[in-house]
Amino acid sequence: MSGIIKILIYSVLFLLIVGQAQAFSDQATAPATPQISGTVVETMNASGYTYVRILNKGMEAWAAVPETQVKVGEEVGIAKGMVMSNFTSKSLGRTFSTILFSQRIIRR
């Protein structure tokens, strides 16, 4: 009887793992929805990050993503991330009143 219970438990665990893997795969392939988007008006690299200032309909926002190439004038979106207030970048020697830290830029 304990052999049947073990098989049942392993079967349930297997199905849970497969379900989690499928959900993760669906997230990884789904198109990203930008948290902010607009035209890059300033960009700089420091300490493994690319900082971009984005302008959209007169509103300005700063974002930081892992270092990548982006050009002033490029239309981009910034994937959802974590917003920080009064963030000081020691490598840039400046404080951002608000900045979005994200994992990637979404090319338009």
Q: Can you walk through the features of this model?
A:
By secondary structure, this protein is an alpha+beta fold. It folds into two domains: 1-30; 34-107, Beta Barrel (OB fold (Dihydrolipoamide Acetyltransferase, E2P)). It is built from one helix and seven strands. The protein has a seven-stranded mixed beta sheet, with no helix packed on it. A hairpin with a 2-residue loop joins β2 (49-56) and β3.
Rg over alpha carbons: 21 Å
Measured by DSSP, the beta-strand proportion falls in: over 45%
Query: In sequence order, what are the helices and strands, one letter per element?
Result: HEEEEEEE
CATH homologous superfamily heading of the largest domain? Nucleic acid-binding proteins
CATH topology-level name of the largest domain: OB fold (Dihydrolipoamide Acetyltransferase, E2P)
Low-confidence stretches: 23-27
Residue-averaged pLDDT = 83
Class of the largest domain, according to the CATH hierarchy? Mainly Beta
Largest sheet: 7 strands, mixed
Principal-axes shape call: elongated
State the end-to-end distance: 59 Å
Order of neighbouring strands in the sheet with most strands:
5-6-3-2-1-4-7
SS class? alpha+beta
Helix content: 25-40%
| Tally of strands | 7
Q: What is the number of helical segments per DSSP (H or I, 4+ residues)? A: 1
Number of domains: 2
Q: What's the CATH architecture of the largest domain?
A: Beta Barrel
